[in-house]
Design goal:
Structural class: alpha/beta
Largest sheet: 7 strands, mixed
Helix content: 10-25%
Low-confidence stretches: none
CATH class: Alpha Beta
Number of strands: 25
CATH architecture: 3-Layer(bba) Sandwich
CATH superfamily: FAD/NAD(P)-binding domain
Distance between the termini: 69 Å
Oligomer: single chain
Mean pLDDT: 96
Strand content: 15-25%
Number of domains: 1
Radius of gyration: 23 Å
Shape: globular
Length: about 550
């Protein structure tokens, strides 16, 4: 089994790479995925999003170590284990991140990864429902739209409340201006989840130069001195090997890629020695710099019976599912996050570090109602954390989960960020736009006001937003794992292409930037000239140095 390129992981990045690298029929490409088929209504129907991420058949059900600053709670960390990877189990939210997030990457040593260089690849990847402009693409594989177009009046009430509180209204947070409130975008096409499996992989499965093997657990990268020559993997109870003429590319995600490097003997010597793994190449940054987004729900009772809480009984779910099966529309065809906001937590921050997802329901991530009656909630998180964690193997056994420790809220700035989340969100929801709808505050509850009270609530209630990243950081210093061309430093013929190589976590969900990164990396792997840098303007608040928001509150 010899191929030109071996891609490990058929997820958000791996499916993109499989598509682009196999466009040339001269390239023989092998794509390996531990999971199986994504042919399930639970994956393809957008409204069922809470189910696949909590199902071991479709997702690795990782847990963190007890988190010191979260009352020693173990945090759930599901990662896709199915064709499409985490794009088949995620919330389908399409957020690129702020332009300055990518300039930050370049400032940290990821040369050629500034916003002007990345924007053309965002455009290449997407097919935006409103057509092409300087910021949006119209001909890419990835369909992006606003779902059901905010038919529930609560979506627009949230946007209007943000404007009343003194923030911008932005029509396209993925365009010129991220800061503000507006419609949210999702990766759904004709009512179906538009994962990278649907967008990039399934249309090319007929290519004779592409081999896709599912239920294949990769044990390690095969090395000859400082050269990657293939992979060892287990399939149907048998240990097999595949060899590469050109490159091995790890796209196993921010948990899987550092784990595979360490299982292969590439990583910090002390970690490998403790795990009983022979050191092949010292690379101290492997598994370090782990980052994630946290969020909690601000929940209110609703005075009008217009929320999704009235659709959670079995008969209503049956009707929603039946309509989706027949027509691919209705409440089954949306993730229900149809309006959003991005704001700065305080003056002196140049671009937004807080993100809102608005939901016209009050429920938990498992899809169960949070309380009896009607309600709504807004998910809020501090998105530029300074706390850093790690991923470390503890055994040579690839079936044993690695030690995952995020060190959530270790840095005081992160705790301060969540205090602002509570205070600023409460102010927004209490604007007059919500007067016809807003009932009692359920969570955190009006008694939660002081710093100590907010800190205690956050420690007990905050949850992961499921955005682990940055554990194989890109850069040029000694703690960088890959260089600016995504090549593993010191090893020939080996790359990492997924969200693990982000230098820092962007202000937004990770699916969109991961797909962009894979599109850009594919050109590097194929030695194509990069797309021409964009000259599109980026807007930030003119008063960011002195003001937390940009306008006076509107009555």
């Amino acid at each position: 089994m010899t191929y030109d390129y071996i891609i490990v992981g058929a997820g958000s990045a791996g499916c993109v790479l499989a598509n682009r690298l196999s466009e040339d029929p001269a390239n023989q490409v092998l794509l390996l995925e531990t999971g199986g088929s994504d042919k399930s209504i639970l994956i393809q129907m957008p409204t069922a999003l809470s189910i696949p991420m909590n199902t071991s058949k479709y997702a690795w059900q990782f847990e963190s170590q007890p988190e010191t600053y979260l009352n020693l709670r173990k945090m759930h960390c599901p990662r896709g284990k199915v064709l499409g990877g985490s794009s088949s189990i995620n919330g389908m939210v399409y957020v690129r991140g702020h332009a300055r997030d990518f300039d930050e990457w370049q400032e940290m040593g990821a040369q050629g990864w500034g916003y002007a260089n990345c924007l053309p690849y965002f455009k290449k990847a997407e097919s935006w429902s409103l057509g092409e402009d300087s910021y949006r693409g119209a001909d890419g594989p990835l369909a992006v739209n606003n779902g059901n177009r905010m038919q529930n009046p609560l979506y627009r009430a949230f946007i209007q409340a943000g404007v009343q509180a003194g923030y911008f209204e932005t029509q396209d947070y993925n365009g010129k201006l991220q800061e503000g409130f507006g419609p949210m975008h999702m990766t759904v096409k004709n009512g179906v989840r538009w994962s990278t499996a649907n967008a990039y992989l399934k249309p090319i499965l007929h290519r004779k130069n592409l081999t896709v093997l599912t239920h294949a657990l990769v044990h390690k990268v095969l090395l000859e001195e400082k050269q990657a020559v293939g992979v060892a993997f287990e399939r149907k109870g048998k240990l097999q090997q595949a060899f590469s003429r050109k490159e091995v590319i790890l796209s196993a995600g921010s948990i899987g890629s550092p784990q595979l490097l360490q299982l292969s003997g590439i990583g910090p010597s002390k970690v490998l020695q403790k795990a009983g793994i022979e050191l092949k190449h010292e690379l101290p940054g492997v598994g370090e710099n782990l980052q994630d987004h946290l969020e909690f729900y601000f929940q209110f009772k609703c005075k009008q019976p217009i929320t999704l809480n009235g659709q959670l009984d079995l008969w209503s779910k049956f009707k929603i599912g039946s309509r989706w099966l027949l027509k691919k529309d209705g409440l089954g065809a949306t993730n229900h996050f149809e309006s959003c906001g991005f704001i700065r937590s305080r003056a002196g921050i140049e671009w937004p570090d807080l993100q809102y997802h608005f939901l016209p329901a009050a429920m938990r991530y498992d899809g169960q109602s949070a309380f009896d009656g009607h309600g709504f909630q807004v998910h809020i998180g501090h998105n530029k954390p300074r706390s850093r964690g790690h991923v470390r193997v503890t055994s040579p056994d690839p079936n044993r989960p690695p030690e995952i420790r995020f060190n959530y809220l270790q840095h005081p700035a992160d705790r301060q960020g969540f205090r602002q989340c509570v205070r600023l969100t409460r102010e927004i929801i209490n604007q007059s736009a919500f007067d016809p709808f807003r009932g009692e505050e359920i969570q955190p509850g009006i008694a939660v006001r002081t710093d100590d009270e907010i800190d205690a609530f956050v420690r007990e209630s905050v949850e992961s937003a499921y955005h682990p990243s940055c554990s194989c950081r890109m850069g040029e210093d000694e703690m960088a794992v890959v260089d600016s061309s995504t090549r593993v430093r010191g090893i020939e013929g080996l790359r990492v292409v997924d969200s693990s190589i982000f230098p820092t976590i962007p202000n937004g969900n990770l699916n969109a930037p991961t797909i962009m990164l894979a599109e850009k990396a594919a050109d590097m792997i194929l030695r194509k000239p990069p797309l021409a840098a964009s000259t599109a303007e980026v807007q930030v608040s003119e008063v960011w140095q002195k003001e937390q928001r940009s306008l006076e509150p509107i009555d």
